[in-house]
């Protein structure tokens, strides 16, 4: 529920400025769903992120002023598509909400007009016109809310397809809309006032139908969303004059004698009584009055009363001119996910925290890490625009007097470099990130818009108010031509994912002798060690065990010894039973029996809530451990590090593991021992779907859907969170290498690791190791997972096993199960890829062959999403491979238990 400071004044006009709550009317109840804070960010709405100083106004040859043509066309396309989507959603909506009147469309406010007499007129009209998108966003948001609330009901699961078909909008454009602020109901809305004050002439104020808003208000209350609702009771003398709409009675949000007495005893003009939900987990909420012992009294306050002091950041961060949020009384805007900014954290607080973290990292920095950081700084000083796999760029935007850190989007980096001067760009070499803000410095001399255009500013305005008109819009029922939404997809999609070009191979090639020696620890004498008595694998199977079906095996005797070693390991032989001539463990001169470059500890982590249990191998610097530690759960990978003598630093080893696609954790040591858990951010009771979202049962992707997936995936991977994917190994790491530089994987855990990370603790010492981990939703984004409706189906006992696997998938982020099948562009790692014959511990040529073939198939237009069962069948390959790989791992674990007890 809202705070007392958020209570509206007693007299508020019905038609507001779209920024404060107003009385909820039957003609426009969607005002309730308008976001509190500016929604002008993201692929769809970032085009509207302009201010009076940055709006691209140009002067035509006739001397008149107007919005630049390309911007005008982009806004017009957005408005057309949103208008048709809104109309289609209204037409298919069968739920008991009022038939709403659409507010005046934005172009009527004047952004399409190009003959303004002054620059000031044009600026004001365009900004007002931009704000005219707000009621349209609220209108569509209301329908998203109602449809999502009811989509578990029979016949309600195909509404997305119906909307796209009726509006003539591509499914990928609609998917972007659903991923935007419009359908994100963790974002606070302005809410509204439900006016239940009784007219004096009303004979029976408690009887009859009070309003046609009962259904909508009731659903809002039941979902516990950040939508503040205010009930205006008016003047009352006794309980008989209390109106009790059904929607309020169901949740006990009603006025009784106790509440009446409480309100009457409060001082002030506005008598505010906050109510809250008694049980957040209840299916049907029950609201109770908070009975505040120190009630809020509406008083006048000046800006000086609420002015927050400005805390300049440390010297290693932007200059002291960096502003802080100025009005803490206003609610803090939601921070962007993956931006690194914490909820409620001002810009100065963000940079102060970063400075402390950087100082701690600097104190433990190794010479090699320092050299790499200085190289990044030297490269950044050249001032070039970051490339495809370069540094991430974040822009600080001012929203309601607060600065919010947002990803610039790699397709916009060149524009950012043109818009902001070098003094307004600050580089962080510890994280390989740029922060950009107009408050960091002064613009370049030629960037002054008014001087460049000879123009006048707002002082030359004639005083005319170009406001947003309020009038009913007559909808065009005809669907849009498909090229309109498709052309808009071309505007918002990052051109970096190359649809028609396969990625460059990144596999690390090795000879059979290198794999046998470094990975398996097998020595291959030139004479046969065991001439007879063993059922040796054939050459083809041996090559597959080595990770490459086309690898060249050594000479006859050496190949015989390699096969003998594999058979002895696979049949369960212990170290003592394997011939000393075949296993390097028995040879005193082998590298694993020499002094190791780094130290390795075996740690048995207890399995407890919030802690990752099981046996782990911790690789650390020998002399002075830190700042990072490598944690592996694969013994063969640990021994390969020693046999290849990787090092001497942890960063050196981490780079080698990254190049080979080995799964590992790059951890930091902390005394923080709180139970960890992924913080997925705010949640709602509305159903949500991971990855690419929900689709109707007849969904068949086309090239634009595939490009949309690539763009969506790219946007995530190029955030600080995306770097974790490089260390995840397997298919996740391979996909990440198409978007990120290998060096990004050694930057270490993020700022939130102690809150949201993965903890490795031995259960005894007061310190633990922490690393980031991907959430189930993030993995589904990388793999391109869709949740596709199956429709009605018979009793489960009559289905085949494959059918049960397909329909039995459940969304990890969904509150309830649903009859859906998951289909994806790539296999999920834990369920299928890591249990396949491709998973031999590193990214092999066989893995790369599978990956490149699949990419080529998609680029050639063969766009096939696979079910979980199909991936399982496709990745079985040769089932005989895995027993040998598991045997090598068992032997490696036995060796480590002996050498490092």
From TrEMBL:
Origin superkingdom: Eukaryota
Residue spans of biased composition, Low complexity class: 312-334
Q: Where is this region: Disordered?
A: 303-341, 359-386, 442-481
> What is the name listed in the Swiss-Prot or TrEMBL entry for this protein?
Uncharacterized protein
